[in-house]
Amino acid sequence: MKKIESNKAPIPKAWYSQAIKTGKMLFTAGQIHLTADGKLLEGDIKEQTHQVMKNLKCILEEAEFSFKDVVKTTIFIVDMATYSEIIQVYSTYMSEPYPARETVCVKELPLGAKLEISLIAVKN
Known about the structure:
Elements: E1 2-4, E2 19-22, E3 25-28, H1 45-62, E4 70-77, H2 83-90, E5 100-105, E6 115-122
Parallel strand pairs: 4-5
Antiparallel strand pairs: 1-2, 2-3, 3-6, 4-6
Helix pairs in contact: 1-2
């Protein structure tokens, strides 16, 4: 088991890792729309989704993975009305075969974030 940490994505300020690699699998922590310097990106939900996906991309690359290796994602959002805009952006990062995915609407997220995404990737 190996801790993965990219300085191009927000560094955790609590007791968790950005990602853990074990064998051919990578498990990321949920990423919110923080910039690399730890500031919550304001703007609209599309800009925030791009920031989350950029954070995940940096973590994947640090572990020598890519979005093509992603097999499962979990999306947490605070407002289901934003779902279609989030998926429009999310879909530009993913390709066939698309990963399995679930979307969960929650009351709130850390630091007042509007969305959080975690993923599981497998290297073949």
